[in-house]
Amino acid sequence: MPTFVAEVKDAKGNLVKEKVAATSPEQARMILQNQYSSVGEIKAAGINIDLASLSEKLTSVGVKDKAVFSRQFSVMVNAGVAMVRCLGILTDQCSNPKLKKALTGISADVQQGVSLSESMRKYPECFDKLYVSMVEAGETGGVLDQVLDRLAVLLENMQRLANQVKSAMSYPVAVGSLAVIVFFAMTIFLIPIFAGIFVELGTELPPLTALMLWLSDRFIPVKDGGLDSDWWFWPVFLGSIFAASTAYGIAYKTPQGRLRIDGFFLKAPLFGDLNQKTAVARFCRIFGTLTRSGVPILNCMDIVRDIAGNKVIEDSIERAKGEIQQGGMISVALERENVFPALALQMMSIGEETGELDTMMMKVADFYEDEVEQAVKALTSVIEPLMMVGVAGIVGVILLSMYLPMFAVFDELG
User: Rounded mean pLDDT of 209-220?
Assistant: First the structure.
């Protein structure tokens, strides 16, 4: 008897895949309908690869996807379109397979009377704690369209901020990769050509030239059609890189290791100031948006802590939350942690005193986002000549090591 598989909804409302043996798809549907509240499309089970499912698993829901969804959802809700119809339209238009599946499940839940925020909470890969909390606050206050619009603005700002940081990192990574490629290419292909000349000259090689020839010999494991005696170099070299990266990953997963590494990133030369300003801008933007949307202060602290992305800042927010629970001011609690700049803390304090904390947080976020943009430009202007000098230095050292023996020969002949 053939086997069929279908996506069904269990008693808890979760979408699961179920197999059933039946003589036909119609019989399989009848069997499943007696066991589950909802039965989706039925397919014959087999060994064929489900490309749609594979694509869904490999795809992630990015900030841009959520920003576009929030903007479109906000416009339709504000125009008075029924929520179920909004979700149906957005599901049909969605190009991200993972988000599309989530919206399909959310739409089914909403039709059965489940709240939008509660349904979104079932899909943490698509809608994180920040998103769900704001939607919940919007539903409670009856201002879902406004909250969705704020979410769209928040996500767009976060995406822009992330792009600015990526642009600062991309240039040194690209030039550094080019420098490594040039070094290996010249060491593997250029130096062996000169090695034969040096043997014919029979002169004593300078230390720099001898070092480069030694490296060249180690980088070429196959010579004259056979395995060289120094074949072990590459396994040791690559193994060392793998071991170092593995050790870093293990250390970063431990609380103390992550605390030290993240602390270094906040104080690192060149990039430390950029990382701190980015963290402050993200904190203020998210905190201001949450409080403006009606999310309680302590819940805001939990959310910004979870998405801080830096252990030092996470611990600082957690300790500050404890002081706030006892009636302390946010600015004073954060000031004790020595993580946030004095200007940001002063503006927070003014916002608390005037009762406009959300507005002041937004202004602080605007200021530091502009600071990040200026820092990226300054960093790029500093790194660009340094990287070019570095590449030129690598090429110059290799060429100098090749010409030094010739200069010695010319001196002897002269």
Answer: 81
